[in-house]
Design goal:
The chain is α+β, with helices and mostly antiparallel strands. It has 3 domains: 80 residues, no CATH class; 84 residues, Up-down Bundle (Monooxygenase), CATH 1.20.1280.50; 268 residues, 7 Propeller (Methylamine Dehydrogenase, Chain H), CATH 2.130.10.10. The chain has 13 helices and 31 strands. The strands form 9 sheets. A 4-stranded antiparallel beta sheet has the order 6-7-8-9, with no helix packed on it. A 4-stranded antiparallel beta sheet has the order 10-11-12-13, with no helix packed on it. The longest helix is centred in the N-terminal third of the chain and has 18 residues. GO terms for molecular function: ubiquitin binding. This is F-box domain-containing protein.
């Protein structure tokens, strides 16, 4: 048995003696905040000094030796040194037996004194004694709420609990894929740095809590495209981008509902768009794609190559894949504006596309879904089964989910090309879908939203309502569009609150 195991046995034996003695009183291990590490601008983090490992060290560190002499103010009894030497010569079990007998022969006040000497040994801040990497590894096993509480323990623990990479992992576990963007890293105090990932987690938690418990606020209605049709929507962070057949895009604040800027440059209606960070990409009936700076409204590149309307696109990191009514797909580098690859094989307009950085999946008016290797420009699988135009796709790297005008939704295995499930129940065109893990949410022109389990093919919920567009972002925001206006918050009735609660429950 180790040193601390022995101390623990002695401590609890003394506690039991006090509990059953003439002076019964409860004693517990106190939790005193550690002093933590000191921070200096020259040396950085300095861990707490090591906790003493012997009674001699303990008395030297805490002044217990002097305190004992002050309390007793008597000379050591004769024979004490000989008794200690004899004690040291005994085996471990013999020492424990001797201590048991010693405790049994002590008065309660003497036992209390021993407890006061032993108790500080249990108040050991082992986290501060570890290298920072190991300390962070230990803290990574805590739940986020426990991390926030740990940050209140001491200065050093707060520095550790604010670690950005630690919170990135917590966000990853909860499906939060973007940090909260700040213009510059905010310095709180010397040694403390603002964590964008922690802010993103807290913001997401507040949003989820508001959806579950808060009252539904009146939706903001955004008007700006006059009588023209809103053809596409993107939601990223606190910004919304709308494209219209009036040849423009508008950037809106999701917080205030105000139009921040209008992007002018296309000579035809805008029918597709993507947004990430400060980059917006748009596709138009003028057969071009444009890359925009969302902050300034500047057009960075105009991408030429398609011979008909650019009807769909999907952005992944620095590449965007566009699909056109010319039946082709093109892979572009958005930083250089260069066309990297052309994918040919469909025999009708390409209506939807998904790209995960490795595979491209496209759906077209030829009733087909195709899986491509963009680097070699080869079609790996042609997924046949739909009996009408394919309008919507979702792709998670393992499953392809396609929605068609034939009213069905099909789930495919991307590696084999086999159809796993055919989801039936909608009565019209499935125009929008969102997939997370095994849960699929589909929006249909029959004014219903259905929630499916793609592993079993089972429909879990059906919600009735006038929903024309479904767009989910990592912040659980939802935007719906109808005609020339948009609603932030969506359905203006109890249906929307029920819808969000049910979707969040499954997703």
């Amino acid at each position: 048995m180790g040193f601390y195991g022995t101390l623990k046995m002695i401590f609890y034996k003394m506690k039991r003696k006090l509990d059953h003695g003439s002076e019964v009183r409860s004693f517990s291990l106190g939790k005193k905040p550690c002093k933590g590490s000191e921070y200096t601008s020259t040396t950085g983090l300095v861990p707490c000094s090591a906790t003493p490992t012997t009674f001699g060290d303990l008395r030297a560190a805490n002044g217990q030796g002097q305190q004992r002499r002050r309390i007793t103010s008597v000379q050591p009894p004769s024979g004490l040194q000989e008794w200690l030497k004899m004690f040291q010569s005994w085996s471990g079990p013999e020492k424990l037996l001797a201590l048991d007998e010693l405790i049994d022969s002590c008065e309660p006040t003497q036992v209390k004194h021993m407890m006061q000497v032993i108790e500080p040994q249990f108040q050991r801040d082992f986290i501060s004694l570890l290298p920072k990497e190991l300390a962070l590894y230990v803290l990574s096993f805590l739940e986020p709420k426990d991390l926030l509480q740990a940050a209140q323990t001491c200065r050093y623990w707060r520095i550790l609990a604010e670690d950005n990479l630690l919170w990135r992992e917590k966000c990853k576990e909860d499906g939060i894929d973007e940090p909260l963007h700040v213009k510059r890293r905010k310095v709180l105090k010397p040694g403390f740095t603002h964590s964008p990932w922690k802010s993103a987690y807290i913001r997401q938690h507040r949003i989820d809590t508001n959806w579950r418990r808060g009252e539904l606020k009146s939706p903001k209605v955004l008007k700006g495209h006059d009588d023209h049709v809103i053809t596409c929507l993107q939601f990223c962070g606190n910004r919304i981008v709308s494209g219209s057949d009036d040849n423009t895009l508008k950037v809106w604040s999701a917080v205030t509902g105000k139009c921040l800027r209008t992007l002018v440059g296309h000579t035809g209606g805008v029918w597709s768009s993507q947004m990430r960070d400060n980059i917006i990409i748009s596709g138009s009936t003028d057969r071009t794609l444009k890359v925009w700076n969302a902050e300034t409204g500047e057009c960075i590149h105009t991408l030429y190559g398609h011979t008909s309307t650019v009807r769909c696109m999907h952005l992944h990191e620095k590449r965007v894949v566009s699909g056109s009514r010319d039946a082709t797909l093109r892979v572009w580098d958005i930083e250089t504006g260069q066309c990297l690859h052309v994918l040919m094989g469909h025999v009708a307009a390409v209506r939807c596309v998904q790209y995960d950085g490795r595979r491209v999946v496209s759906g077209a008016y030829d009733f087909m879904v195709k899986v491509w290797d963009p680097e070699t420009e080869t079609c790996l699988h042609t997924l046949q089964g739909h009996t009408n135009r394919v309008y919507s796709l979702q792709f998670d790297g393992i499953h392809v989910v396609s929605g068609s005008l034939d009213t069905s939704i099909r789930v495919w295995d991307v590696e084999t090309g086999n159809c796993i499930h055919t989801l039936t129940g909608h009565q019209s065109l499935t125009s929008g879908m969102e997939l997370k893990d095994n849960i699929l949410v589909s929006g249909n022109a029959d004014s219903t939203v259905k929630i499916w389990d793609i592993k079993t093919g089972q429909c879990l919920q059906t919600l009735q309502g006038n929903l024309t567009c479904l767009n989910r972002d990592s912040g659980s925001g939802c935007v719906t569009s109808c005609g020339s206006i948009m609603n932030i918050g969506g359905l203006s009735s109890a249906l929307f609150l029920r819808f969000l609660r049910i979707v969040i429950h499954y997703m």
